[in-house]
Every structure is written in C-alpha cells, then in structure tokens.
C-alpha cells in the first residue's frame, strides 16, 4: 500500500468494555492521504462469537453475521491495512482499546506505540472547533458534514475522515500532520499482501432510519468539556452506555472498573456524573421547554448515574440562559461585525464560494469554514436553512443572514 497515509477507523461493538466479554462486531477503515483525498476504504462485519448486545444502537442483525469472519481470521488483513499508517478515530481511546484486546486475543498484537500514537478527532475539536461538544454529529455539524448511516462503522469512519480533512484545511501548516505521517511510514511492520484474503461481509442496508433516542439527541449537542482527556473519555463512555436509557448490571460494574482503571475514585466519578447530568439538563432546556417525556427520561438517567432523586426537581426549574438573537436575525449595522471577524458561508450562493470568500477577505473579514463560538456571522443562501452549520449557529446564538445582507451591508 502507499506510504504516508491516515487510517480512519471505526468499530461497532457488542458492548462498551473490551476487558470483559465484549467484542468487535463491525470494523471499517477509510484510507486518506495528506491532501485529504480518500484513496481506499474497506469494511466488514465481524463474528463476535457471542450475542450482539444492544442491537437497537448499532443495528446489526444476527442473520448478517452468518458468513462473517472472526477477528482472528481478519488479523493479518488488518495488520497489512494499518501498518505504516497513522491511526485516526473519533473517541479513539474507545476503538483503540477494543483493537488492542482483539489483536491480543488473536495472538497477533500490533506494535505497542501504534495505538497510543494515533489522532483523536474528538480531542482535536478543542483546538479547531471551540465550543463544540464531543459527539461526532456535533463536530460534523460545525462543518456542515453530512453524517450518513450513523452508528455503522463505515458511516462513522467516512464522516471522521472528512472531519480530519477539514481540520487539516483549517491548519495546513501544522507540522504535526507530516511528522506523524513520516514517523508512521518509517515504522511500517507488515509489507506483504496477506497470502489468504478473507472476503469481507457487509451488513444489509435498510432505507429506514432507526429511531433516535432522547439521550442521543441530547448528547449530540452537549457543550464543550474543559476537563482532562481521561475525564472526557469516561464521559464519552457514559454517552454510549446511557444512549438507550438502560444500564445493565454488567455495564454498571464495568463503568466502575473503568473509573478505577483510569484513576477515578468513587467521589471523582460521581462528580463527573453530576456534571454530565447538568449538561443534559441544559441541553434539554435549549428550546425553552422541558416536556413531560424529557422529565421522565432525565429521571431515569438520574437513577442510572447514582445521583439523588430530588435533583429532578432542580432540573424542572428553567435555567438562567442568555437570550440569543432569533433565527435569521441580522446585526443592526456593519459596525456590529468588526473587521477581522470570522464569517462562514453555507448553501449555494449566486456566485462561487471562493469568489465570495475573496471579497470578504478584501473587505477586512476572515472567511472561515467551520461554525465555532468565535464566528460572528453565518451567511446562508436560505436563512431558514436546516443545515448542520445553521443548526450550530442557532445553538451558539450566532446571527444568520441571507445573501442580500452580504452584498448590501457587508461588501
């Protein structure tokens, strides 16, 4: 395979904890070069040799696995595809722990530093998407990336690849991109095409979109977390564990074990649970209403997190939130968008986007590709747009204006 490549990986698993009985049930690899061009992709279901766990989340059916290979049968193929590349994932610590456990069970561990030296697009969001939450959907919305087939390995890996390419576009001169690629290529450990290529097996495609749970909707718009990497990784596991509003005894025990493994005592873990619950409450109140079904769901989460039941009474009280400009509102005059301000475009304009960005730059503004809290204005072909960028702008209280405002006021 070509040298100096990123391997963007996503896995779907039977559960959350590779240290126990949970296994990988699907894996996808999207291969991308430094220019952000996808040069290859590969996906397959994996026979986990156990039940599939919470099928409502990943959507894999047992009948899809009848001819799927085991991870052990795929180990050599994966070594060949991953060797010499930079591993990338969204919440990479989750996928890396599963990959490490599976390779070890197969008796074919990868070099020790391969998994630990990868890039996590969730962690990189703190640098490039100030204000974004940790979910893949939230980060994709900031760029207007269409996340298709969420919770499928190929869908999530493909979106993560686009997300990484957008990061590189925002910061093309960051030396770490090339440094990691060079180092990975120099440490390639598997060169030969596997003698036995195991056929990949993909899941059946359904045109029906799975129902989105209340907690998943909230987790997609949780605010940026400013704690440590360890704490954020733990909260990301909570996102997954609570998505179906059910925490099995096995998951509860494994969460406690995970907290212990990463150095969180019971007091610290409960403090994170309190923080997590308050973020969920704030997200639920974002539309100004806390409906009865939301209260019921928050009550379930409260119990699962081991927090006092009376906290639901506090949650019912409307929080003091900033009054954002209404949808489509525009600044009163040009002086409210000072020179140097970040301006983002979305939708099909009457002129090429590159031409508009050039004019904005000449007028003293800074064209930007992602919606972050530092953006002053979103110019939309349709101010009522339902695009990911427009959604993020409304979440942040960023004014959204039409193209007329661009020509009549800004330029």
Automatic annotation (TrEMBL):
Please give the SMART domains that the UniProt record associates with this protein. Answer: EXOIII
Span of domain BRCT: 333-411
UniProt-listed Pfam families: BRCT, RNase_T
SUPFAM superfamilies referenced in this protein's UniProt entry, alphabetically: BRCT domain, Ribonuclease H-like, TerB-like
Q: What is the name attached to this protein's record?
A: DNA polymerase III subunit epsilon
Origin species, per record, is: Glutamicibacter halophytocola
């Amino acid at each position: 395979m070509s040298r100096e490549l990123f391997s963007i990986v996503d896995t779907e698993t039977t559960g959350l904890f590779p240290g126990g009985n949970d296994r990988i049930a699907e894996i996808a690899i999207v291969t991308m070069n430094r220019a952000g061009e996808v040069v290859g992709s590969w996906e397959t279901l994996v026979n986990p040799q156990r039940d599939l766990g919470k099928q409502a989340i990943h959507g894999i059916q047992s009948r899809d696995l009848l001819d799927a290979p085991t991870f052990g049968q795929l180990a050599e193929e994966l070594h060949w595809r991953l060797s010499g590349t930079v591993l990338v994932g969204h919440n990479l610590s989750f996928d890396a722990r599963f990959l490490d456990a599976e390779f070890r069970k197969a008796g074919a561990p990868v070099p020790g530093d391969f998994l630990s030296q990868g890039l996590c697009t969730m962690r990189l969001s703190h640098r490039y998407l100030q204000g974004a939450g940790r979910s893949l959907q939230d980060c994709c919305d900031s760029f207007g990336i269409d996340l298709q087939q969420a919770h499928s390995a190929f869908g999530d890996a493909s979106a993560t690849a686009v997300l990484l390419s957008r990061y590189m576009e925002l910061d093309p001169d960051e030396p770490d991109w090339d440094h990691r690629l060079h180092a990975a290529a120099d440490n390639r450990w598997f060169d030969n095409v596997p003698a036995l290529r195991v056929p990949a097996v993909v899941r059946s495609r359904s045109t029906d979109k799975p129902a989105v749970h209340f907690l998943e909707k909230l987790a997609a718009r949780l605010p940026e977390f400013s704690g440590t990497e360890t704490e954020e990784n733990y909260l990301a596991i909570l996102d997954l564990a609570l998505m179906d509003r059910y925490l099995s005894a096995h998951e509860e025990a494994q969460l406690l074990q995970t907290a212990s493994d990463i150095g969180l005592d019971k007091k610290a873990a409960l403090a994170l649970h309190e923080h997590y619950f308050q973020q969920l409450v704030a997200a639920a109140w974002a539309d100004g209403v806390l409906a009865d079904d939301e209260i019921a769901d928050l009550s379930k989460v409260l119990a699962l997190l081991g927090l006092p039941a009376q906290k639901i009474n506090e949650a019912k009280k409307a929080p003091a939130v900033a009054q954002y400009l209404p949808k489509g509102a525009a600044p009163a005059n040009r002086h409210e968008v000072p020179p140097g301000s970040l301006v983002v475009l979305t939708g099909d304009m009457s002129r090429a986007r590159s031409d508009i960005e050039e004019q904005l730059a000449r007028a003293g503004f800074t064209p930007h590709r992602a919606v972050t809290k530092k953006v002053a204005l979103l110019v939309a072909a349709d101010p009522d747009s339902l695009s990911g960028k427009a959604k993020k702008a409304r979440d942040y209280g960023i004014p959204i204006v039409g193209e007329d405002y661009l020509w009549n006021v800004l330029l």
